[in-house]
């Protein structure tokens, strides 16, 4: 049975056959605690008399960056290189993809990130081939509006673009999500989309953000937001398999404490880490994700797990389900997640295409067997 958990506050869909009653209770408790924590944080942030600062990305009362300063000359050089690449984009992607991948891994200049992301995912071409479609979609009715409007005030509450209820940011996000729910009625809407749509709107206008969302859902995350979320479940299992290959001790630790990917990776994958990592790390991750595909999300999860639990002292200290999960979700040292350190760790993780393929086929067969048994 597919269950909507709107009433519990945990806004995702699961096939409950795969979750025990205890697992479901744990998920609900974690969600409730997270929502209360977010409310308390917002109250502290907007308390009368407290100083208000806005960082370069638009987030309120958050540090400007977790990355090392980059000299202005280097920034200008990278901007010029990307400007030239974008003028010759189709030829580069066809004949020199390795060059594009290398520069995406180094990071796209923020001033050109919107244009580069639209080129990488194909949204620019989609928009060019479909003039007027966005406006036409907005004229139609969507059965998902009650859910979309409920989630708007919960998304990026501490960003200046989205903090005002009914303000410009929330209005534009509503347009993007409504248009997509009409454009793809089989998927409609799922809460994880708000985080992705909001991030896109921080970089570009609503119509451009819509076509990026279309491209991402079709090309990068197909099946992630469909009933049952089978593709997302499969990628979680692939991640667990590869963690075992990379560090069996970490894999054994997670299994012995019953820390399944269901408890931590759903938000990772559905929100593509936009609610997990510092923002400059998120942007660097997305530079690579839009170039190399979903395996970047899987490798990011593996990196987080290895950083969290490779140290035996940490494993010994996190000797229960609750301790291990809290450490992974909320207590990782900030320096581990900082842009330069985390991206270097991610890029040093060598997993071959053959390993990805083998893990994928193995877990695909396992899931097919599970659902075959459920149907019978």
The count of β-strands is: 2
Distance between the termini: 14 Å
Helix-strand category = mainly alpha
Low-confidence stretches: 1-28, 43-47
Order of helices and strands: EEHHHHHHHHHHHHHHHHHHHHH
Our estimate of the beta-strand percent is: under 5%
Give a quick account of the main beta sheet: strands, pairing sense, barrel closure.
Answer: 2 strands, antiparallel
Helix content: 55-70%
- Give Rg in angstroms: 21 Å
> Strands of the largest sheet, in order across it?
1-2
Question: Can you walk through the features of this model?
Answer:
With about 375 residues, the protein is mainly α. It is about 65% helix and about 0% strand. It contains 21 helices and 2 strands. The protein has helices at about 20-45, 70-85, 90-95, 95-105, 115-120, 125-130, 135-140, 145-150, 170-185, 190-200, 205-220, 230-245, 250-255, 260-270, 280-290, 295-310, 310-315, 320-330, 335, 340-345, 355-375; strands spanning about 1-5, 15. A two-stranded antiparallel sheet has the order 1-2. A hairpin with an 8-residue loop joins strand 1 and strand 2. Helix 15 (about 280-290) crosses helix 16 and helix 15 runs parallel beside helix 20 (about 340-345). It is globular. The two termini are about 15 Å apart. The relative contact order is 0.10.
């Amino acid at each position: 049975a597919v269950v909507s958990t709107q009433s519990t506050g945990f806004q995702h869909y699961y096939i409950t056959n795969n979750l025990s009653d205890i697992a479901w209770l744990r998920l609900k408790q974690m969600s409730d605690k997270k929502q209360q924590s977010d409310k308390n944080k917002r109250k502290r942030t907007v308390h009368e008399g407290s100083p208000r600062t806005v960082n370069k990305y638009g987030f309120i009362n958050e540090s400007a960056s977790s990355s090392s300063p980059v000299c202005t000359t280097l920034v200008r050089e990278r901007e010029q290189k990307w400007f030239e690449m974008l003028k010759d984009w189709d030829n580069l992607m066809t004949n020199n993809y390795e060059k594009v991948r290398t520069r995406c891994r180094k990071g796209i200049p923020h001033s050109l990130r919107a244009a580069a992301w639209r080129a990488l995912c194909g949204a620019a071409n989609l928009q060019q081939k479909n003039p007027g479609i966005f406006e036409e979609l907005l004229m139609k009715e969507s059965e998902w509006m009650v859910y979309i409007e409920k989630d708007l005030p919960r998304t990026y509450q501490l960003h200046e673009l989205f903090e005002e209820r009914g303000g410009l940011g929330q209005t534009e996000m509503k347009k993007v999500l409504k248009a997509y729910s009409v454009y793809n009625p089989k998927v409609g809407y799922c809460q994880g989309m708000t985080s992705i749509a909001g991030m896109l709107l921080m970089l570009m206008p609503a119509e451009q953000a819509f076509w990026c969302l279309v491209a991402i859902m079709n090309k990068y995350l197909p099946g992630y937001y469909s009933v049952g979320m089978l593709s997302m479940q499969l990628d979680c299992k692939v991640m667990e398999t590869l963690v075992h290959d990379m560090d069996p001790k970490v894999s054994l630790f997670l299994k012995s404490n019953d820390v399944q990917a269901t408890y931590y990776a759903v938000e990772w994958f559905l929100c593509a880490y936009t609610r997990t990592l510092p923002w400059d790390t998120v942007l660097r991750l997305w530079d690579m994700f839009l170039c190399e595909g979903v395996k970047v999300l899987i490798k990011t999860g593996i990196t987080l797990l290895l950083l969290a639990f490779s140290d035996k002292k940490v494993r010994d200290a996190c000797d229960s389900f609750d301790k291990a999960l809290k450490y992974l979700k909320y207590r990782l040292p900030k320096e581990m997640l900082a842009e330069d350190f985390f991206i270097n760790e991610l890029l040093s993780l060598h997993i071959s295409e053959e390993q990805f393929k083998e893990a994928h086929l193995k877990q695909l067969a396992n899931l097919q067997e599970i659902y075959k048994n459920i149907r019978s």
